[in-house]
Sequence to fold (998 residues):
Amino acid sequence: MKGTYLGEFQEIVLLAILILGEDAYGVRIQEEIQDQMKREVSRGALHTALMRLIDKGFLTSEMGEALPERGGRRKRIYSVTSIGRQALKEARALREQLWSQVPDWAMNMNYTI
Amino acid sequence: MRKGAQPPKIYTRLFEWFCDEEYYEELQGDLEQSFYENIKAHGEYKAIRKYRKEVFLMVRPSVIKKIKGHVNSNNIDMVHNYLKIGVRNMLSQRLYSFINIFGLAVGMAATILISLYVQHELSYDKYHEKADRIYRISREWLNQDGESSLHLGHIAPPFAPLIENDFEGVVEQAVRLMSGYGPLMSVGDKQFEEENFFFADADVFKVFSWKFIQGNRETALVEPNTLVLSETVTKRYFNDEDPIGKSLTFNNFGIIQEMKITGVIEDTPDNSHFKYGMLCSFLTYENVVGTEQLMQRFGSNNFATYVLFPEGVSASQLEAGIPAFTDKHLGQNGNGDPASTTNKLHLMPLTDIHLHSHLDSEIEANGDIKYVYTYIIIALFILVIACINFMNLSTARSMKRAKEVGVRKVMGAFRSSLIRQFITESVLMALISALLAIGFVALVLPWFNNFAGKELSLVTVDPLFFGGLLLIVVLSVGLLAGSYPAFFLSSFTPVKVLKGAKHSSHKKVNLRSVLVVFQFFISICLIIGVGVIGDQIEYMKTKELGFAKDNMIVLPSNGQIHANFKLIRERLIEQPSIEDVTFSSRVPSGRLLDSQGGEAEVDGEMKRIDFRIADIHVDHSYLETLEIKFLAGRNFDYELASDSSEAFILNKAAIDGLGYASTEEAVGKKFNYGGRQGYITGVVDDFHFESLHQSIAPIVFVITQGRARNVIVKVKEGLEDEATAYLKGEWEELRPGSTWDHYTIGESFNDQYEAEEKLSELVSYFSALTIFVAILGLFGLSSFSIEQNLKEIGIRKVLGASVSNVMYMFTRRFALLVLTGIIVAVPVSYYGMEIWLEQFPYATGLQLLTFIIGGVAALLFAIGTVSYEVIKAALSNPVNTLRSE
Fold:
């Protein structure tokens, strides 16, 4: 087992898949991430992340319908497994726990020289 | 979906080849889908670029085919072994390896440099999102015989709005840009003359996709007296302050006007056919001239005009309608023919302008596709020569390894593995050369940029393009160079080589000799090329122009100077350092762009002038100051008041064109031109007004009535410094606030030949490189051949051969190869240079001396290179070479 560590980009991929629901396949996930993060993500980089997440058991996938604008090729629809959801929740809980311990002054400090 | 818009096959195939089958369907589907979506969103060009990028970024372990388990791991060991042997071989023969790698690296570096340059040249104006739909309109005038007499890249102001109006649906936008002719812009105590100032239609930003940093691209130039600045210009006036809403004061043509800044845009990308610094709303200009008047000005061709076609509309639809359009708006010529017989509008795609447009007026001087081709050819030459070296040396050296091959075969090596070994070695060397080449390029790039006036960089170039190019060069050179020794050597039968059969290197003609001949052929062609280009430049610079071009200083004029010219002239002439002063609309070395129609009395009747006579507006002393020779008649006379409107002086070309039998006959004939009516009072001899790229044009001189932009001052020889200092002081008073701006006619003439000088300089650098690489190769080859024949030299010496005998024997072989190269190169370069010279109306003849120098230089270089090793060998004591064995 590769462990259940969730990298930042992988976390974003999982969230994007959850947002997209039924429509979560390659191009859409890529677009969703690009739109939300405002940064370029190549399809290849996304593929690597998806494969890692499948290896960890956070994702499953099935082949969907074939479309003419895909050259008659089918798309692969990804969905988050319950372990995946669990991992996301844990990541969020950990973050919130950390946030709650950050004192107010640390975020509101102004340095004036 | 439009037909033809498909992802490029080559990348699809490439992807199919390396992608794991398990993911191929999904990933290829995704790529295609986003490709089609990108076409809709950003256009085909961007979509293809993006697709290519996506495919290359797919090269990662998670996507690439897994190497199948049954691959023989032995192969990997073998490759390790090949590499190890290769490295050892290289290190054991350091000199040859060095020559080989260094030579190839130099060749590759030259190729990389030139391909960076060429890629940049080809990328001009492609950054505009709608680049493929933007065209520039130019205007051509034909004479009665249908010959082109003038072709301008600028057209008259009414055309753009009329085209937009008459071709609704065919043309989406038509926009105009007009230079502000270097206005003085100021804020507070900061003032600069702005070179790149344009009045531009508000829609200019709908056509060109320059990025806005501040301001709104829709409304920035809609109001009169509004300005959009480039980033650099903004910094110059406002440092880091926010410029929006602030004003600059415009001062030119006697107009002083506050202008409000409504936007800041990126600096003009380096690959644009013109550069802007400030764009001012067109209405500003229109309000000064008056809209109605502007729409009548079909004669003021100062407006660079661009049209944008809607998607799916081709330029030919507009082209088809243009004759009718010109007839409608320009009416008829004087003789009743429709205007379209002598007036043509042409369309040129925006992206072609930089390399293909060489009209009589351009916003900025353009590049030239011919030079791009020249550079590509030179790059290929150098690369080919370097590859030949590489092949020659590898082949020569591999002779030494015949025994190794024999032993390997005896031990059971397959032929295929020997081939692979040799090829691995040469690819390895090519790879090292490529890395070295990148280092070289990084070193010389700043110098090259300075020279070519570019901002090329290894960093900004598309890494995929660059990496791909390099990989292709490495592989093809490696494979090509490695293949000959690989196939040749591996074919040896072990028995023969091990028995010691000698591979004679004395064979009369072999591949190596042919390659050496070819190398020298190319080098000699380049040397001769440099020589002929140099001859031509020398010829153009020293040719007698027909007037006194020396010690002439040109200064800008203005309304005040013009009005008081007589007084100013008298004051200036009193200076001991100043010989004469005159003024004119055009100055020699400039172009003759003004012309008007007229009539001349020939054989007793008035005839329309059916060819173009360029006009120059001058004052009375112009022809005398420039020392232009009179053939007949008299000069303008101050005393005759009628001369200022009725006197015409023509040059011989004009007289010949009009059909007079002699120059004397022409004097006194009636002549009407551009609304003036009078007589031909004098005829001057032809002289070179324009640079020697142009044939001598028919010219008419008339007394200026307010069009003289230039003051020409003739300075006494030896007193140039005093005169310049004095004039500077005078002009500061006469043109307050302007920068001191002057040039001399002699310099300006020489500046016209800058393109040729650049070419000559570049060709000479690269031909030096070529010769260097060729000589490097010859050195390697000769020293190798001598090393192989040391015993022979020893025996010959023992038998009584003198040092010179031995030298003669070896040098002769190589000299013969070079001579063959010369014999082939001379006719080829003779032919090639004749074609090059054809573009000049005034060309130097091909001189025998240039060819002799080229040939002799190559021969001397070659003999010099060979003799070093030969002398060493010939002087050596035979005992040393014959002792062993």
Remarks:
- Chain B touches chain A at residues 1, 23, 25-34, 36-37, 53-54, 57-63 (CB under 8 Å).
- The CA atoms of residues 295 and 406 of chain B lie 88 Å apart.
- The first helix of chain B runs from residue 9 to 18.
- The longest strand of chain B covers residues 255-265.
